Amino acid sequence: MLRSCTAGLHSLWALRGGREGVPRLSTDLQPAPRLFSAEKVIHKDWALPNPSWSKDLKLLFDQFMKKCEDGSWKRLPSYQHRSTQISEDFKTYFRDKPLNNENKVSQIFQLFTRGFEDGLGFEYVIFSNNDEKRTVCLFQGGPYLQGVPGFLHGGAMATMIDTALGSCATIPGGAIMTANLNINFKRPVPLCSVVVINSQLDKLEGRKLFLSCNVRSVDEKTLYSEAT
What we know:
The protein has one domain (about 55-225): Hotdog Thioesterase (Thiol Ester Dehydrase, Chain A, Roll), CATH 3.10.129.10.
């Protein structure tokens, strides 16, 4: 279950004169500030193949890119940093808990899952189908995510499940935060293997969004986890 902050944040966006063509609140790419320079820094899109991707991950990526050709599916770009405006929007929205100098939110949001070098941590790409309110995440966990030798740490898998469900929730909900996450781990995931996380929106209740997902092997024969 995730709670949507959309109503408050969209109101803030509207007050700023929001209109078509103006960057919205979630995943729009924003230039990073660079001191003493007028040059705009364009962040790297991490949701694209790199040399660390396995054959399975590249093959699945190509298959879903073909599905994107008719517009039914869309690849979601993924950057290491998010817009500084999101920080201001959240600080304004949660004004009942003012932030002082000691606990001030960072002016640049850094995406935790993109904090590793290529191939060492979270390698993934997410495709969304807005009409069906679902997403598919192709994920390969690198050696820095090891738990029991040879297998992915359960916390790393939980992080990717949360990321996948959160991406699915943004389709109808905009800016969201996780309120409750339940995971049933069926089998351990081999380190550096590729899994497919299928997420879907189940229902809406006011600001609450209820979603579910399953984590399977590339051939879909092995069920690793289920979550809501």
